[in-house]
Write a structure and sequence with these properties.
Helix content: 25-40%
Structural class: alpha+beta
InterPro entries: Aminotrans_IV (IPR001544), Aminotransferase-like (IPR036038), BCAT-like_C (IPR043132), BCAT-like_N (IPR043131), Class-IV_PLP-Dep_Aminotrnsfr (IPR050571)
CATH topology of the largest domain: D-amino Acid Aminotransferase, Chain A, domain 2
GO molecular function, one term: lyase activity
CATH class of the largest domain: Alpha Beta
Protein name: 4-amino-4-deoxychorismate lyase
Shape: globular
Order of helices and strands: EEHEHHEEHEHEEEEHEEEEH
Keywords: Lyase
CATH architecture of the largest domain: Alpha-Beta Barrel
GO biological process, one term: carboxylic acid biosynthetic process
Largest sheet: 9 strands, mixed
């Protein structure tokens, strides 16, 4: 079941023209959100922020604006069936809304953390926009899984850590949370913005580049996105001829503070 161009469709396939730019070039923008308490109006769902992200990309690219009321109608029709929705917009204003379930092992990952792998040479296209051309991040995550890691950490040409293949990074040291700045060329995640606004009232937070030589100084690190919330990273695998592992505390008390946003 999905919603496409104004109606619910009971199928696992979709019909697109062979000359559709979305098919040929990944010419779409999308956002993925978790619907809390089956309500688009719930503060944690943050519906308006997801729509604003889509609007910003569409206006930047000069694409046709969609029917926002129709998008809300489509999302509402899928909410009883799926806790996670992905809204995709095409250049001519068409909308595609698909749904999925939360990962079965999400609670375990939130509690015990995951292993990540440093992915070099996987630069995202138009990194400040969430476009359908997500191939590099997808390939990076596949490569990470081949190294027994659940996530990939993307880096710039100097080896500075930017973001994971699916979320934004957070690091704790000196009684302060640190996150890479948007100027580094990362996706302005909706969850990142929510957490950043909230955490500033709880403790110090700094937006600074994650230089390669500084990441070992963090006591704890995690990543966030609108679906999984906050997941600690307990081990980072890096390979430069030989394999090097950095370890972090997935049970650090600072992580409870970061995760508290979702239970506040």
């Amino acid at each position: 079941m999905y919603w496409y161009n104004g109606k619910v469709i009971e199928s696992k396939t979709i019909e697109l023209g062979v000359d559709d730019p979305g098919l040929l070039y990944g010419a779409t923008v999308f956002t993925t959100l978790r619907v809390y308490h089956q309500s688009l109006n719930h503060p944690l769902t943050n519906w308006q922020a997801h729509c604003d992200r889509l609007r910003h990309s569409i206006e930047t690219f000069g694409w046709q604006l969609p029917n926002w009321e129709q998008i809300a109608q489509g999302a509402t029709s899928l909410i009883p069936h799926f806790p996670v929705l992905r809204i995709t917009l095409f250049p001519n204003g068409r909308e595609l809304i698909t749904g999925r379930h939360l990962p079965a092992d999400l609670t375990k990952k939130q509690k015990h953390g995951v292993q990540a792998w440093i992915a070099t040479n996987y630069e995202r296209s138009l990194p400040t926009h969430k476009t359908g051309n997500y191939l590099s991040a997808w390939l990076a995550k596949l490569a990470a899984q081949q190294h027994s890691a659940a996530e990939a950490i993307l880096v710039d040409e100097n080896g500075n850590w930017l973001e994971t293949s699916t979320g934004n990074l957070w690091g704790w040291r000196d009684n302060c949370w640190w996150t890479p700045p948007l100027t580094a060329g990362i996706l302005p995640g909706v969850a990142r913005s929510q957490i950043l606004e909230w955490i500033q009232h709880q403790c110090r937070v700094q937006e600074e580049p994650w230089f390669a030589e500084a990441v070992s100084t963090f006591e704890a690190i995690a990543y966030s996105n609108s679906v999984v919330e906050v997941i600690p990273i307990h081990t980072v695998i890096e390979q430069h001829g030989e394999i090097v592992q950095k370890t972090y505390d997935p049970y650090h008390s600072s992580l409870k503070l970061l995760q508290q946003f979702y239970v506040a």
